[in-house]
Amino acid sequence: MKTFPHFLLPKPLLTALLAAGTLAPALAQTAPTTDPALAVPPAAAPAPPAAPAAPGPLTYYGFVDAYYGFDFNHAGTNARPYFLYAHNRQNEFSVNNAILGARYDNGRVRGSVALHAGTYVSANYATEDPVLQHIYEAYAGFRPFKKAWLDLGIFASHIGFESAISKDNWTLTRSIMAENSPYYESGARFTYEVAPKLTLTGLVLNGWQNIRETNQGKALGTQIQWRPTAKVLINSSTFYGNEQPQDSLKRRRYFHNFYITYAAAQRLNLALVFDVGKQQSAGHHGYDTWHTGSAFVKYQLAEQFSTTLRGEYYYAQRGVFINGISPAPTDARFLAGGTSLNLDYLPTANVVFRIEGRYLRSENAIFQHDNGPSRNYGNLTTSIALSF
């Protein structure tokens, strides 16, 4: 085949060929590197948020209820009427109840120990051993089988709609019926959850609100709590025992507490409470009876404000229990009733500021005024309660 010298090629074609031969090595030198040391790592994926720690079996809690009360036409004393134990001081700043405690519950074993102090403790625990007066609760328990608990020690009473912790009550002060039924008990408590809406409790106790035993007998108690619907709670509690001192004639006591609560609307809640008790009279000639009732209407005014109206009465034949546990046949009966209205403000979820006005009227002149005994009694009470 005939060839041609390169100088005979067209000049444009010769220039293109020379350029291609020169660029080839250069393009080979700029190929992407595969050296790991020189490679840029990809951006790391964001770490998932840490899961919240599961609550442990041991928890701590506290409560402080500081208050100021004022009685109208009060006598020269700072004490309120003898049958009131909570918020029972007037014209002084004080602490009704301050509690600090710890609870343990791992699902199989549980227990609690808490101490308290305040004017409520001084009044309501006055007859207890000084070593035991400042125990709010101290009990230990376990599950003998599924859905059951057996506890032994000192714990809150199974009786009543109201408790010793004011923030849990619809009203600031306690009704007469709550003040004169047990706030606390000591003994053995067996609780069984029959169904999610039904719980049964049986108790063997030292007595009617006493930590130390006062005689050789034991008292019995029961409680039934039933929620037929999400809006209704029905409670029935009973007590049976002899509360006379060891050297006195036995006087058996039978008592029943009943209450029902109803969430009538989103902002409106209602409660009705009724107690009836009987105790053998002197010489066992029949029974002395007392019965008492109260009604509550609670209304949520706004997110942080609510109000509760309460009406109540208390009747005790021969003044049984409220005036003494061993009334004589000639003792006068006790009959009193009244109403109260309170306003609650919750600046945060664990603080409540409350103010309440209360009026009571009795059949006999049992209230001490600055100008002598009277059938009428009125007061104002305000409180700030903190819980944690």
Automatic annotation (TrEMBL):
Signal among keywords: yes
Domain of life the protein comes from: Bacteria
Stretch forming the signal peptide: 1-28
InterPro entries: BBP2, Porin_dom_sf
Record keywords, A-Z: Signal
Identification of the protein by name: Porin
